[in-house]
């Protein structure tokens, strides 16, 4: 499969992302906007899930109604800690999804990701995985998370973020050309500290009020 970057350009997604970018946006508002935008993005990411017809009874008559195919089971895998913000909104839309957590932090000098936690459902090989992290900056953390997930042999993997840098996209797809990236924006690039410009700052700090 060729490397794919799918930009979710729905007006509501773009508007909410712009509100999140503003430096004066409070922690409470940032958190609420992240939940709202993640729910909207989940619609787009899951639009190709297969359906099958099942018999149901309406108040008026029986019918064959389209329902999600039972075999299309999903796992939402959050890259800690900022991934929790996207996870919460997506779970509102897909409450039956299983949840995995991948704990990574970047060494401040080398920017190399270091794993400190990994927990996913035991039956992940039967499921499709949506990896969520608000920022795709250098791409190292996302690539490390996907490499770790591959060891569990899931059916497929997709990566979802709010903002991506071109450098991160290139690095991620060099390692994972078969994993599509869904993002609300591709920004200009990275600064000397590996932060996305213009970006929205440190998503984890803004989400949890630790800035």
Structural class assignment: alpha/beta
The CATH topology corresponds to Rossmann fold
Uncertain stretches: none
Secondary-structure element sequence?
A: EHHEEEHEEEEHEHEEEH
Count of domain modules: 1
Would you report the number of β strands? Answer: 12
Q: What share of the residues lie within helices? A: 25-40%
Helix run count: 6
Which of globular, elongated, flat, extended, rod-shaped describes the shape?
globular
Span from first to last CA?
A: 40 Å
**Rounded radius of gyration (Å):** 18 Å
Major sheet: 8 strands, mixed
How much strand content do the residues show?
25-35%
CATH class, named Alpha Beta
Average pLDDT value?
Answer: 91
What is the annotated CATH architecture?
Answer: 3-Layer(aba) Sandwich
Walk me through what this model shows:
There is one protein chain. The protein has a single domain, classed as Rossmann fold (3-Layer(aba) Sandwich). By secondary structure, the protein is of the alpha/beta class. Strands 1, 4, 5, 6, 7, 8, 9 and 10 form an eight-stranded mixed β-sheet that branches. Strands 2-3 form a two-stranded antiparallel ribbon. A two-stranded antiparallel sheet has the order 11-12. The protein has helices at 11-21, 27-45, 83-93, 140-150, 166-175, 203-208; strands at 5-7, 51-57, 62-68, 73-80, 98-106, 113-119, 127-132, 135-136, 156-164, 181-186, 189-190, 196-197.
Present the secondary structure layout:
Layout: E1 5-7, H1 11-21, H2 27-45, E2 51-57, E3 62-68, E4 73-80, H3 83-93, E5 98-106, E6 113-119, E7 127-132, E8 135-136, H4 140-150, E9 156-164, H5 166-175, E10 181-186, E11 189-190, E12 196-197, H6 203-208
Parallel strand pairs: 1-10, 4-5, 4-7, 7-9, 8-9, 9-10
Antiparallel strand pairs: 2-3, 5-6, 11-12
